[in-house]
Amino acid sequence: MNSKNIQIFLIVCDVAFIIIYSLLFHLSRPMVSSSVAFVPQGSISQIISYMVDKNFDLHEKVDKYMLWMIGKPQSGWVNINQSPLTRGDFLYKLSHAKAPLKVITYIPGETKELLFVQIALAFDLSYEKLMQEYALATPYVDGFIVPETYYIPVGISEKHLVHFLLAHAKKYHKDVFEKIFGEFNETKWQKFIVIASIIQKEAANTDEMALVSSVIYNRLKKDMKLQMDGTLNYGQYSHLKITPQRIREDTSPYNTYMYKGLPPNPVCSVSKEAIFAAIFPKTTNYLYFVKNKNGTHTFSQNYETHLENIKN
Fold first, then answer.
1. Looking at the structure, do residues 83 and 71 belong to the same domain, yes or no?
2. What is the per-residue pLDDT across 48-84, written as a single tens digit (0 to 9) for each?
3. What percent of the chain has pLDDT over 70?
4. Do 36 and 80 contact (CB within 8 A), yes or no?
5. For 298, phi and psi rounded to 5 degrees?
6. 77 and 121 share one domain
7. What is the number of structural domains in the chain?
8. What is the pLDDT of residues 85-101, one digit of tens each?
9. What is the pLDDT of residue 21?
10. Would you list the DSSP string of 53-112?
């Protein structure tokens, strides 16, 4: 080997050493991460971009190639629970550390307070902190979190759990509203969700929802008080029986026996069926309804008939 070739060889070795040393230094840098992280579906580039957007300290170009060598990240929740943590550890976890999940089902008509009690018990989290994080993250008092079955990773923090639920809810409500109206209008959406929450509390089944909705609109149009028990089953009172004493003593704006108009906020989570009923009420002259012996409701147009239905 002549001297020129030796020089080229040494230069190549030096460059390779610098590259390898730089990569090792890059991978050994300390990194901060939550106990669990969510990885979306998509290409490695899309995943890295998503993680960067979520404030993870990653380099979009370098770490893309690192993951290409380590292995494509698994979509879904990944268990990062490690301390201390290097960038190399984090990238390896993205590809190899699927987080264990627990199932939580949020039922339509339930309140966020009882959802957070359920979550706090299942994941050993703080109910108070869940409520605090929710209040910090959104102005919506209730009715925003989507009632469905969630697969939630063990080890998630209160803050990340709340933000996960709210991010899903934001997309869900926007998609539903845009399919019907073509665009999302927050003021209209808020009114429909309030009405849908009352429907959810009052209707005995899905078939009744559009009828209950018609009663709500008919009473509002006539400037009548709604006088519906379901509006008093808000927050922590979700499962309490509404008594004459409660109606007299609850002075909150949720008491539709005391105040005209709609409550200021939704009283519970709402199903898609309840949202559709709120937007598309049945055309009726009904102003009253009462539970019958079959467990459903009997609807009527005038108070005299309503009193007769109460007796039956």
1. yes
2. 888 788 778 777 777 777 777 777 777 888 888 777 7
3. 91
4. yes
5. -105, 125
6. no
7. 2
8. 787 777 777 787 788 88
9. 45
10. HTT----TTHHHHHHHHH-PPPSEEEE---SS-BHHHHHHHHHH-BPPEEEEEPPTT--H
CA distance 106 to 69: 40
The rounded distance, in Å, linking the Cα atoms of 254 and 111 is 14
- Whether 238 and 110 have beta carbons less than 8 Å apart is answered as yes
Summarize the confidence of residues 246-266 as an average pLDDT: 95
pLDDT in tens, 132-166: 999 999 999 999 999 999 999 988 999 999 999 99
- What is the average pLDDT value for the chain, to the nearest integer? 87
Q: How far apart are the first and last CA of the chain?
A: 108
**Residue 9: C-alpha distances to residues 3, 13, 22, 78 (Å):** 10, 6, 20, 43
Cα–Cα distance between 93 and 98 in angstroms, integer? Answer: 8
CB 85 within 8 A of CB 114: no
- In this prediction, what percent of the chain has a pLDDT beyond 90? 58
Residue 94 neighbours by CB under 8 Å, 6+ apart: 37, 39, 47, 67, 73, 74, 78
Q: What is the pLDDT of residues 219-246, one digit of tens each?
A: 999 999 999 999 999 998 998 899 999 9
CA distance 223 to 218: 9
Tokens of 207: 């078939």
CB 49 within 8 A of CB 60: yes
Phi-psi region of 295 (alpha: psi -120 to 50; beta: other; left: phi over 0): left
Is the same domain home to 170 and 69?
no
- The size of the chain, in residues, is 312
Per DSSP, 300 falls in state E
Last residue of a domain, one of 66, 96, 126: 96
Of 44, 70, 96, the one marking the end of a domain is 96
Q: Quick one: 104 and 90 in the same domain?
A: no
Q: Domain residues for 78?
A: 3-96
